[in-house]
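FORM 12-B: Structure-to-Sequence Request
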């Protein structure tokens, strides 16, 4: 059961880190989102050694509970991720510098409670709480996946000991943190590569549309026009179109002068690839 639980953590962590290699489509409300929520719910396997009572079935029980909470609602998956990260960080911090041979003050559960609370708060009540599939750089799922991979590879169950680790387990906490940070760095690098690829693809789409439409930014003559020949002045409709198109592909664009309707159009097109293509190639939103 222990080997199976570690394999589940490695497989789930790998899926979370690499799924964007296979799809650029929004995951909100899709089967992909449901599958990834299952993967993140499996992170509770790491918490199984904290408690006793289920014997060899303990990892399975925690996996089922974590997946159930994670797939009920997007807030649930934030809670599962926050509690997993907080608990593991708390016990690692305890072993690195706070542990004592005589924990008569019961500091160990206090440290875990504080780190879990802070992590859950960060992942549910701050900008990190944005649904991960809506963010351009979903760092906290990468953070969680990196931790799951590190745990699955090292299986550092000794971290959950209240007493200070010694002997062969003495460096377990540092090894785990080092591998976690290494995995996280690799995950961030992969995110950057995929983000650059997506930006390049979106810019290419914008250039293709630009060549088909008359306007001051066009490289060609526009649809039905001889290359290099443009109207003396672009119509108000085309100016509005160019303004919207530029804002769709530039998330840092200044939209302070946009109307509420134009802002909604930009927001929809940024999230929905189908609506964006409909606007760029066939109109319908203006």
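FORM 12-B RESPONSE
SEQUENCE OUT:
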């Amino acid at each position: 059961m222990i080997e199976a639980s570690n394999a589940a953590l490695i497989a789930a962590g790998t899926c979370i880190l690499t799924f964007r290699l296979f799809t650029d489509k929004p995951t909100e409300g899709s089967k992909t989102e449901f599958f990834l929520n299952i993967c993140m719910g499996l992170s509770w396997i790491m918490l199984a050694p904290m408690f006793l009572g289920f014997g060899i079935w303990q990892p399975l029980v925690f996996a089922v509970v974590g997946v159930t909470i994670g797939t009920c609602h997007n807030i649930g998956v934030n809670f599962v991720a926050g509690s997993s990260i907080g608990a593991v960080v708390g016990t690692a911090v305890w072993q690195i510098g706070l542990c004592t041979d005589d924990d008569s003050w019961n500091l160990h559960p206090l440290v875990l409670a504080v780190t879990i609370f802070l992590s859950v708060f960060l992942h549910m009540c701050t900008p990190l709480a944005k649904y991960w599939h809506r963010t351009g750089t979903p760092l906290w799922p990468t953070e969680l996946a990196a931790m799951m991979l590190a745990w699955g590879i090292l299986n550092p169950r000794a971290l959950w000991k209240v007493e200070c680790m010694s002997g062969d387990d003495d460096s377990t906490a540092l090894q785990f943190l080092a591998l976690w940070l290494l995995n996280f760095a690799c995950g961030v690098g992969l995110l950057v590569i995929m983000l650059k690829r997506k930006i390049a693809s979106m810019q290419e789409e914008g250039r293709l549309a630009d060549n088909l439409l008359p306007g001051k930014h066009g490289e060609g003559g526009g649809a039905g026009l001889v290359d290099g020949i443009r109207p003396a002045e672009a119509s108000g409709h085309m100016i509005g179109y160019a303004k919207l198109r530029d804002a769709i592909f530039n998330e840092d664009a200044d939209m302070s002068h946009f109307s509420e309707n134009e802002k909604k159009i930009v927001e929809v097109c940024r999230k929905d690839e189908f609506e964006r293509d409909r606007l760029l190639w066939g109109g319908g939103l203006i």
